[in-house]
Amino acid sequence: GLRLQLRAYAKSTDETKSSARRLSLSRALAVRSYLMDHNISPARVDVRALGSETDRTPLDRVDVVFVN
Prior knowledge:
Blueprint: E1 3-9, H1 17-37, E2 45-49, E3 61-67
Parallel strand pairs: 1-2
Antiparallel strand pairs: 1-3
């Protein structure tokens, strides 16, 4: 019954929020695809593209969080 939430972050290449968000979305979808290839149902994976909205480093990362 556990779900996964993929929280993706990215540093913008041209200093715009939309560019960072697109890059983080692409990164999160790649992780979701990897999980699907390893028998994780896509219905159990939520994707959140957060761009550069974090104060933690590194900016270029995907956090995997287990949620109920």
